[in-house]
Amino acid sequence: MSKLALVTGAAHRLGKAFALTLARRGYDILLHYHHSQDAALQTKAEIESVSRRVILAQADLTDPAQIRSLLSTFQSLDVLVNSAAFMPGGKVDSLSLENWDASLDLNLRAPFLLSQECAKKMTAGGLIVNITDVGAQKAWSRYPSYTVSKAALESLTRILARALAPEIRVNAIAPGFVLQSGIVPAEEWERLVKRIPLKRPARTEEVTSALEFLLQNEYITGQTIVVDGGYSLV
Ligand SMILES: NC(=O)c1ccc[n+]([C@@H]2O[C@H](COP(=O)([O-])OP(=O)(O)OC[C@H]3O[C@@H](n4cnc5c(N)ncnc54)[C@H](OP(=O)(O)O)[C@@H]3O)[C@@H](O)[C@H]2O)c1
To answer: Angle between the 110-121 and 64-71 helix axes, to the nearest 10 degrees?
Structure first.
């Protein structure tokens, strides 16, 4: 029977790259998306072109009821990648309660709830990979709730790794700067990229190769692999 991987936020960008990586390694994909239905359908077609099965699952992961309903769509699972995230800007004096809650609910509570229940479905053992951020080690005052959520997700990674061993391994991948989005203004992105010791953003495949490594090496749990071109050093 083929193995199944659930990737959250997998319609586009890094989540899509994780889903395609797993598909190329022989996993069928439970492809979660929230609003990006067209992109999800496109990604589904790309995964099917490498001869893997794809099930699309739409859910707002800030809503525990929708997480429960997503979890009811499958019986067993081998890999969970928690990639969906929300990064609201807003300094300490202006970040709204709504954005604080939305980012903590999506970036931290959802990976916890998904891990809690997916672990019960990983009857043949499994791997959970939480996508964090080099910001987890920093004090990014323009993105307080995002930074806190990713730091806490790395802590949760260690707690889950201990609690779910030996059957299930739990690790994190912390990218630095990979794909620019509208969240970080272009000038700020350029300024930050210049500060990276390796002087460029990561290529997507330099991040997905960390996932491949975690799939291959079955003696690593509770760790965060930082893929940041040295940004954590500055
Ligand atoms: N991009 C980078 O350079 C970078 C750097 C460091 C860390 N990371 C981390 O890598 C991961 C992927 O980043 P990305 O930049 O590729 O993604 P992104 O563009 O920030 O996309 C966010 C994803 O989260 C999903 N999402 C948003 N709100 C949601 C909700 N309420 N419920 C469920 N899903 C929701 C979106 O789904 P829909 O589009 O379907 O609505 C989308 O797939 C994130 O964890 C991010 O923190 C990225």
So the answer is: 20
Find out whether 147 and 140 touch, Cβ atoms under 8 Å: yes
pTM: 0.98
Rounded to an integer, what distance in angstroms lies between the CA atom of residue 129 and that of residue 97? 28
- In angstroms, what is the span from residue 85 Cα to ligand 1's centroid? 4
- The yes-or-no answer on residue 150 being catalytic is yes
pLDDT digits (tens, 9 = 90+) for 131-177: 999 999 999 999 999 999 999 999 999 999 999 999 999 999 999 99
- pLDDT tens for residues 3-17? 999 999 999 999 999
CA 77 to centroid of chain Cα atoms = 17
Task: Specify the amino acid at residue 164.
Answer: L
Q: Which CATH number fits domain 4-233: 3.40.50.300, 3.40.50.150, 3.30.365.10, 3.40.50.720?
A: 3.40.50.720
Q: Is the CB–ligand 1 distance for residue 62 below 6 Å?
A: yes
